[in-house]
Amino acid sequence: MSYSIDYDGHFLRRLSKLKKQDPPLYERLEKKMEEIVENPEHYKPLQNVLKGKRRAHVGHFVIVFSFSENVITFLEFDHHDNVY
Fold first, then answer.
1. Mean pLDDT value of segment 61-82
2. For residue 55, is pLDDT > 90?
3. Which residue has the higher pLDDT, 63 or 83?
């Protein structure tokens, strides 16, 4: 299935900073985002306050995203301790 991709403003700012400050982590993040687009249902659904969202780990960092019928929205990327 083909999904269109949307980004939260906060996510885009983090992405921009990360590209300059930590290029290897940025590349790992891009690779994980490609995997998410291929199969978003594979990743763990979150509960409680984050219900309706899913997460994927990139080392000690977490990508939080949501998806509907044909749109994946990347919401947050931060260290595991800061997301939860």
1. 94
2. yes
3. 63
Kind plus residue range of the DSSP H or E element containing 62: strand 61-67
Helices within 1-84 (DSSP H only): 9-21, 23-38, 80-83
Fold of 4-83: YaeB-like fold (3.30.2310)
Global pTM?
Answer: 0.90
Contact 4, 71 (CB under 8 A): yes
The residue whose two tokens read 């996510």 is 11
Q: Is the pLDDT of residue 84 over 80?
A: no
Name residue, tokens 């269109």. Answer: 4
DSSP category for residue 12: H
Question: How many other C-beta atoms can be found within 10 angstroms of the C-beta atom of residue 10?
Answer: 13
CA distance 78 to 59: 11
What size, in residues, is the chain?
84
Question: How is the chain split into domains, by residue range?
Answer: 4-83
